[in-house]
């Protein structure tokens, strides 16, 4: 019978899913081990402090292998180019490079307008930095070059330091565009050199982790606000308006008000040109989305629009007949290198650091996305160096700061790009355009470039949907997103980023000051302890209180931790201690009065004429009473000293216990502090733990610490005399055992 029951049980388990069978087996587990304190555990496990490794020592080691490793690390092209597979990768890289170059051409021309520079400098910025990144970069799929957010940040610098008002000439107050553009080009190239120096320096000291302080909600809120700034900055080209150059806080609001004020002065031909170009670009993008599976590469809508608009402008004469502003002369060939202006360094340092951090954050975030998708690794520090060299060398050749573009990177990936060769191919196509074909776009209307920029903002403007998703998932992240967006819109890009970073760090500190405090109880028939407020069946162990915090304890929240502990324990610890001390003082005062009365009786008995037997009896009684009172007084003093020092071995006499003093006793005799969330220990934390030990021992409660990491134990064992345990379960069992001792 037993055998058949056993076989039936096995058959039943065989029919169950694997997970349920595992759960059935888990129920049979029974873990049992002896209770140990920290010293016993260290003795049993032969604990020794881990040997420290000093990485800086390897920096001074010299060998052929190390030199080769450093060369391959800082010049990655030497590592992957010899292994390049022509048969498998070349065709895809050629198609991807051509596709990216077709997008790079109109975007380079358009984003130069965002930076406040002549369009040809956008082509320069699409050639030099891209080729430098091909040599030093580690990401295979990102497309380095002009980017809307970077361009608008550069534009805010050039327009604030070289506004149109500084170049007015003649009685009709016309702007000397040649002089203005010369100054702005010098500003942008010097800014690019400074950005490159910052990025290279941070990369060499392995400071790539700085981007971790820019959380995803912060970056998305910032880029959304930047896209709004880009959109508003292009309205003057869409409507053909002449606007004042503004920078600083609230400049965007003033620009919107000025656009609304000057709308009646709009050039009709410019508005129509922008609308037609915008509609054409949107239709081509919709067609690309619909036919994506059937096309080997996307239809180059931007390039076709630029070619068509240039031909129509030249044939119809949009500038002389309708007043449509055009790009103008685009010089053929490359410009010679020029040294940056050191006099501008002091005024550009703050802008350069902000642009360096933002550019790297955008590049590394996209690089890691593609690396995870295709199964390779991106070195954040080398990416910082590569991007810095691209900006540094590009600044010498009069480029403005660049980063990578999400739209071009997606096109490079979808067109079959496999390595950085695609970037090199696109830069060579741009070089051909600069040398031979650039001058053909002199009649291109600026309104068409503005329309191309606005249409390409769709991806970043769609990030407004983050508000709905973050409201459902994490409202703290939503708060960071909103603060970043509002600060960037109102205070401009540089100040807005600083405010966003400071706010997000302060929010982290505030969240550690408002952790989740809980009292743990044992789930029936298990050794699992959970919050009694969340688990209705969890029951506190009789006589034991287990307290847990969800955040580490340090100087900013140590006092809040102590207050929450005393509140959750259900005992007014401070009031109980004060009542105990008050009654002990009354007891001492009563002993002092008794001593004085005995002294008076002694003096009176010595002066009186009484028999020797009586005097002897009085003196014996006096000495006995005096010894008793001294013993009691010294006992009270010893108790106060013991309470102040918090020594564990100090034992209060029966006459000074809470029960003897007529005070209510706590409903628990042991307190377990679950310190599993403790990640580090500072002096304020140790002092607070000392105070907790002292206060609870005053009310006759022993304190234990559980689940504390070894590093924290090593920092704090010198200052605390409590007992340690590896888990709340083990220490709780030890606390329960005190009932039977």
Automatic annotation (TrEMBL):
Keywords: Membrane, Transmembrane, Transmembrane helix
Stored CDD domains: STAS_SulP_like_sulfate_transporter (cd07042)
Positions with biased composition (Basic and acidic residues): 619-640
Residue ranges that the Swiss-Prot or TrEMBL entry lists as coiled coil: none
Span list, region Disordered: 588-657
Entry's Gene Ontology molecular function annotations: secondary active sulfate transmembrane transporter activity
InterPro entries xrefs: S04_transporter_CS, SLC26A/SulP_dom, SLC26A/SulP_fam, STAS_dom, STAS_dom_sf
Domain annotation STAS: ranges: 534-707
Mode of membrane association: Multi-pass membrane protein
Gene3D superfamilies: STAS domain
The keyword Membrane appears for this protein: yes
Domain of life: Eukaryota
CC terms in the record's Gene Ontology section: membrane
Main location as per UniProt: membrane
TM segment ranges: 111-136, 190-214, 267-287, 299-317, 348-372, 384-403, 415-435, 447-467, 479-510
Subcellular location(s) of the protein: Membrane
Signal peptide boundaries: none
Family annotation (PANTHER family): SULFATE TRANSPORTER (PTHR11814)
The protein's name: Solute carrier family 26 member 6 isoform X2
Species of provenance: Ursus maritimus
Gene: SLC26A6
């Amino acid at each position: 019978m037993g055998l058949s029951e056993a076989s039936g049980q096995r058959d039943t388990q065989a029919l169950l899913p694997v997970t349920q069978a595992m759960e059935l087996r888990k129920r049979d587990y029974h873990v049992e081990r002896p209770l140990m304190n920290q010293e016993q555990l260290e003795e049993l496990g032969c604990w020794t402090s881990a040997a420290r490794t000093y990485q800086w020592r390897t920096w001074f080691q010299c060998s052929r292998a190390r030199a080769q490793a450093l060369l391959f690390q800082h010049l990655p092209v030497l590592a992957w180019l010899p292994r390049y597979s022509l048969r498998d990768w070349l065709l895809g890289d050629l198609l991807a490079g051509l596709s990216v170059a077709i997008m790079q051409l109109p975007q380079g021309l358009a984003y130069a307008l965002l930076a406040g520079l002549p369009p040809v400098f956008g082509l320069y910025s699409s050639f030099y930095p891209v080729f430098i990144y091909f040599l030093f970069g580690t990401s295979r799929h990102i497309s380095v070059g002009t980017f809307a957010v970077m361009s608008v940040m550069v534009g805010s610098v050039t327009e604030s330091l070289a506004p149109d008002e500084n170049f007015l000439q003649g009685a009709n107050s016309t702007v000397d565009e040649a002089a203005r553009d010369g100054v702005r080009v010098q500003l942008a190239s010097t800014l690019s050199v400074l950005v490159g120096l910052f990025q290279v320096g941070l990369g060499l000291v392995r400071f790539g982790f700085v981007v971790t302080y820019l959380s995803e909600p912060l970056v998305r809120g910032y880029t959304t606000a930047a896209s709004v700034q880009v959109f508003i900055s292009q309205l003057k080209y869409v409507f053909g308006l002449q606007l004042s150059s503004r920078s600083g806080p609230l400049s965007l609001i003033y620009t919107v008000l000025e656009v609304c004020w000057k709308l009646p002065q709009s050039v009709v031909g410019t508005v129509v040109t922008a609308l037609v170009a915008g509609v054409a670009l949107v239709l081509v993008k919709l067609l690309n989305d619909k036919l994506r599976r059937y096309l080997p590469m996307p239809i180059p809508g931007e390039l076709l629009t630029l070619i068509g608009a240039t031909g129509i402008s030249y044939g119809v004469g949009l500038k002389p007949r309708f007043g449509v502003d055009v790009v103008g002369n685009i010089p053929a060939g490359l410009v010679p290198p020029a040294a940056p202006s050191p006099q501008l360094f002091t005024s550009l340092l703050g802008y350069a650091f902000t642009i360096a951090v933002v550019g790297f954050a955008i590049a590394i975030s996209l690089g890691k996305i593609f690396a995870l998708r295709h199964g390779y690794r991106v070195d954040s520090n080398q990416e910082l160096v590569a991007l810095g060299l691209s900006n540094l060398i590009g600044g010498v050749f009069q480029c403005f700061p660049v980063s990578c573009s999400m739209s071009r990177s997606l096109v490079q990936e979808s067109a079959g790009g496999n390595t950085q060769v695609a970037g090199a191919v696109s830069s060579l196509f741009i070089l051909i355009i600069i040398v031979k074909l650039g001058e053909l776009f002199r009649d291109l209307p600026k309104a068409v470039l503005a329309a191309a920029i606005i249409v390409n903002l769709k991806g970043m403007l769609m990030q407004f949907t983050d508000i709905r998703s973050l409201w459902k998932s994490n409202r703290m992240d939503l708060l960071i997103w909103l603060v970043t967006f509002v600060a960037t819109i109102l205070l401009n890009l540089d100040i807005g980023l600083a405010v966003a970073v400071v706010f997000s760090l302060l929010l982290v500190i505030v969240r550690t000051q408002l952790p989740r405090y809980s009292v743990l109880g044992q789930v029936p028939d298990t050794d699992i302890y959970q919050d009694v407020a969340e688990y209705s069946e969890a029951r506190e162990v009789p006589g034991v209180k287990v307290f847990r915090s969800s955040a580490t304890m340090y100087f900013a929240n140590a006092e809040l931790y102590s207050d929450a502990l005393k509140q959750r324990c259900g005992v007014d610890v401070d009031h109980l201690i004060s009542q105990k001390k008050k009654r002990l003082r009354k007891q001492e005062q009563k002993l002092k009065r008794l001593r004085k009365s005995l002294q008076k009786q002694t003096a009176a008995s010595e002066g009186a004429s009484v028999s020797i037997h009586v005097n002897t009896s009085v003196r014996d009684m006096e000495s006995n009473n005096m010894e008793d009172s001294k013993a009691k007084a010294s006992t009270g003093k010893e108790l106060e000293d013991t309470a102040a020092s918090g020594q564990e071995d100090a034992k209060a006499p029966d006459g000074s216990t809470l029960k003897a003093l007529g005070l209510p006793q706590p409903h628990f005799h042991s307190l377990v502090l679950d310190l599993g969330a403790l990640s580090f220990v500072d002096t304020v934390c140790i002092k607070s733990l000392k105070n907790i030990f002292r206060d609870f021992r005053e009310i006759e409660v022993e304190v234990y610490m559980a689940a504390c990491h070894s590093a924290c134990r090593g920092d704090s064992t010198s200052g605390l005399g409590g007992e340690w345990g590896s888990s709340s379960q083990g220490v709780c069992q030890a606390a329960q055992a005190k009932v039977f001792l």
